[in-house]
Amino acid sequence: MSNRKRTVALTGGTGFVGGATLDRLIAAGWKVRALARRAQAPKSGVEWIAGGLDDAASLTRLCDGADAVLHIAGVVNAYEPAEFESGNVTGTANLIAAVKGAGISRFLHVSSLAAREPGLSRYGASKARAEKLVATSLLDWTIIRPPGVYGPGDRDVLEMFKMAAKGFVLLPPHGRGSWIHVDDLARLLVATLPPHEDATAQIFEADDGEPGGWEHRRFARAIGWALGRRVTTLSAPRAILLLAGRGDRFIRRRKARMTPDRASYMSHRDWSIDPAARPPSALWKPQIATRDGLKATARWYKAQDWL
Questions:
Q1: Cβ(72)–Cβ(110) under 8 Å?
Q2: How far apart are the first and last CA of the chain?
Q3: What is the homologous superfamily of the domain 7-150+180-208+273-287 according to CATH?
Q4: How many CA atoms lie within 13 A of 70 on its CB side?
Q5: Whole-prediction pTM value?
Q6: C-alpha closest to that of 110 among 60, 154, 152, 75
Q7: CA–CA dist 245, 262 (Å, integer)
Q8: Which of 38, 90, 220, 221 is most buried, judging by how many CB atoms fall within 10 Å of its CB?
Q9: 19: Cβ contacts below 8 Å, ≥ 6 apart
């Protein structure tokens, strides 16, 4: 049997989830070939490939000789609606073409729970279309739909921590959602790569193991607990969230963290995972209890002067 180190081609390795996953891949013994638009500092075990999902030549270099492909990159927030289509749909199609051209069969695609409700947002619609491309690709595919992801380095949930530090948290309309620590998600992505065969043609939804997910107010109070603060919660109607999204988009332009599109899918009442879609326990189980994870995240934010 060959002792050649296995190679995984990775997109999104410079992002929040991708960075945590890259470290897990190296620790698991993978050689990583990672796509990046900007020059990156040298990292042991990583070969950086300059390019993007819109650059066919760079995707060919990325996939050449790889044993598997892990596609994490995607557009979550967009100033123009067309950016969702180009980043999530066309980018995925371009990558699938490169994967097939390289003769790779194993393809792991990171999607979103938003793909379950494509009518709510352009983001969700684009993720649903990308999933369809993957599922009809004839590759050995697996799709992972994460719920809300938090942990050190995240800037989206940071907004909730900042509000909680002031004693209040503005929330979407009453509802619930599932959450997962970024390290648990990274472990799942690595576990789903070869040689595991029980993940073929599967769509997995994974979370922290909390039955039924977290009611929004309960999760906000857990963040307050992590900060040592008692918080007041305010559930905003969908119309107010949409107004806030327009305001943030107008003020912060491309840097806006709340947009009308995001406000639309955030207003959905139930973003908890489907328990029937959990990964098999023999493959993966969450290890980080959410209260513990929030406490550690709060410490990290404070250490970095983000709070």
A1: yes
A2: 51
A3: NAD(P)-binding Rossmann-like Domain (3.40.50.720)
A4: 28
A5: 0.94
A6: 75
A7: 8
A8: 220
A9: 13, 153
Amino acid in position 234: L
Taking only the tens place, the pLDDT of each residue in 112-122 is 999 999 999 99
User: Cβ(238)–Cβ(267) under 8 Å?
Assistant: yes
Enclosing H/E stretch for 32? strand 31-36
Which amino acid is located at 123 in the chain?
Y
Residue 176: per-residue pLDDT: 97
Whose CA is closest to 150, among 137, 164, 138, 139? Answer: 164
Closest among 63, 48, 55 to 90, alpha carbons compared: 55
Q: Rounded CA gap, 155 and 91, in Å?
A: 24
Amino acid residing at 121:
S
**3-class secondary structure, 303:** helix
**What is the H or E stretch that residue 83 is in?**
helix 82-84
